[in-house]
Amino acid sequence: MALARENHGYRQPAEYYTNPENSIGYLARILFRSFSRQLERRTISRNVSAGQWRFLRQLWREDGVTQRELSERVGMREPTTVVALKGLEKAGLITRKKTDADRRKTFIYLTPYAKELELILAPANAEVHEIATRGLSDAEVETLQALMRRVIANLAEESDKLYMLSDDTP
């Protein structure tokens, strides 16, 4: 084991990560799926799916952003966002508008009904957080959040490096 660590500079030998229980990515995916299912069980009564929730949550923070900005904030590719926005529009939760200043940009706005949903659905999100962190102290929850943010930042930094490298190629 020590030899593999010396040769490759990994925290653990590569074989260690073939067990899903040792993979941060696997655990994060299971956590995400479990969290989404629990949230959707609480929001579906208002006809809001977990996928729609992600967009609404960002729009509740800042309404009237462009499709591209919203896509980046939610962490989805634009074609996926376009499909999701069509569903949100059909559900009466958003409107899409272009401005005279720049006809290429589409801005996304919450409907009055979607704005009202924030106060109705926010407690559902809080409830799932309480369930997910049951048995953890406030300090442990803060540590967990901080560690997750660091992992996300590390991966984002690596993605930026790859993007810069791909920009340099002819």
Task: Give the topology.
Blueprint lengths: L1 H7 L15 H20 L6 H12 L3 E2 H8 L3 H13 L3 E5 L7 E5 L1 H21 L5 H31 L2
Antiparallel strand pairs: 1-3, 2-3
Please, could you describe this protein's structure?
- It is a single chain.
- This protein has helices spanning 2-8, 24-43, 50-61, 67-74, 78-90, 112-132, 138-168; strands spanning 65-66, 94-98, 106-110.
- The longest helix is centred in the C-terminal third of the chain and has 31 residues, at 138-168.
- The chain contains seven helices and three strands; from the N terminus they run αααβααββαα.
- It has a three-stranded antiparallel sheet.
- The protein is 66% helix and 7% strand.
- It has a domain at 25-132: Orthogonal Bundle (Arc Repressor Mutant, subunit A), CATH 1.10.10.
- A hairpin with a 7-residue loop joins strand 2 and strand 3 (106-110).
- With 170 residues, the protein is mainly alpha-helical.
CATH architecture of the domain at 25-132: Orthogonal Bundle
Order of helices and strands: HHHEHHEEHH
- Ends distance: 41 Å
If you average the pLDDT, what whole number results? 89
Q: Radius of gyration from the CA trace?
A: 20 Å
Concise description?
With 170 residues, this protein is mostly helical.
What keywords describe this structure?
66% helix, disordered N terminus, 170 residues, 7 helices, Arc Repressor Mutant, subunit A, mainly alpha, 3 strands
